[in-house]
Amino acid sequence: MELTTILFYLFSVVTLGAAAIMVFSKNIVHSAFALMFTLVGVAALYVLLYADFLAATQLLVYVGGILILILFGVMLTSQGYTLNFKTITVNLIPASLLSAGAAVLLIFAFLTTDWKISEVTERTDTVYDLGMLLMGDYILPFIVAGVLLLIAIIGAILMSTRLSVKNKGGA
Amino acid sequence: MTHYILNISPVAILVHAAIPLTIILVYALVAIWAERKVAGFIQDRLGPMRVGGWHGWAQSIADLLKLIQKEDIIPTDASRFLFKFAPFMMFAASYAAFAVIPFSSSYIGSNINIGVFYLLAVTSVLTLSIIMAGWASNNKWSLLGGMRSAAQMVSYEIPTIATVLTVIVVTGSLNLMTITEMQSGNDILGFLPNWFIFQNPFLIVAFVIFFISILAESHRVPFDLPESESELVAGYQTEYSGMRWAMFMLAEYADMLLLSLLGATLFFGGWNSPFGDFMSGPFWSFFWFMLKGLLLVFVMMWIRWTLPRYRVDQLMHICWSILIPLSFINLVLVALWEVIF
Questions:
Q1: Predicted ipTM of the assembly
Q2: The total number of structural domains that make up chain A
Q3: Global confidence as pTM
Q4: Closest Cα to residue A32, out of A73, A80, A1?
């Protein structure tokens, strides 16, 4: 077997195994760390597809940013002893029905779609091409996304300052 | 589907990958000894003097041998897998980042086009491994240290990235090898090398911000809050012993070297000789590169034994109210400079 194929299966197993641990773990922090392995595994799969920029972005944004925010959220909002953040299962029947339905839909889509399989072409100039596209053809969506994020940041700051002002007034 | 890198024999890949590892290990042994010597001289004492003869040069080797023999203690209530895994993940993250550092004009681990971006992305995993260690230890000091470290590293990542971006604006490339090659030659004022620090006054400001931020990112004094001995015992490392603790130390020193080498590449011409073509070539370029990196490491040690530690709120104030706005203004000014000149 080719080394690439072995690596592909290795990282697929890491991704899927970690995802299973994330879903089934009773401890919410263990779930968060399992999510890290899933995200890193997906990043490795991106690398195998020559999407190096996407892989690095995946690491920087999801592993270095969002996952840390999740952990902060879990650790700062919980009460009591830190090692025993338990998750509780609620709405067992509707949730299982919904996920079973979603699974059937996905498997149906997977089996019926006419997949176009193409050879992966070797690319080295991903960033250059991406930059050219972002600054050329897709400049408008790029700027709109930037403005959207700016509005979100301002909104978050506004909400947090309003809360702290209220707290000060109350105290 | 053929990946060109995977067509090379596995042995060649291993040898290629082992070069940075050898450099890190030798450097760590020297740096830990040097740190104690620098501390000694700054505090008007001698530092380690006995092991190995000349100025106790074998002290770190003796310490390493001692650490290998130590018992590996895992607290009963720790989260075992995460506790064992965290030190190795931390070292793996800093070691992986060395892949894109151009050590010499003829050696770079991986000459990928996203160089700096990859480096910043991989080092962001460091934060996570520190939280992992702090949480898995099941100890209040460890957890506090881990949380502080995460807050600190996430905050200081922004000025670091913004200052790296100012250099990227000048170079137009993310590849560290290309960035270094752009700094060859001695044309500024007739004799100064073409390093970015001399090219543009705003890049000097960028370097100052960058250096302060990497001090914070590698947990050096005055920003060593995650492991401040006097209040948190040893922060996230409190429960670790033996080789696992040694892995943390190794990762910390590797991180210091990594960020110093990044600074040397971005601002001080990387492997370029300061005398133009004199003393250049693959070996000399390695020599100059390590010299520049180690000089920055020395400045970090010097600062450690000179300045007191900041408080947490001061640390956050410095980052969010001073460094981040300054670095963004600086980025705009550098961009304007590039448009005008």
A1: 0.79
A2: 2
A3: 0.85
A4: A73
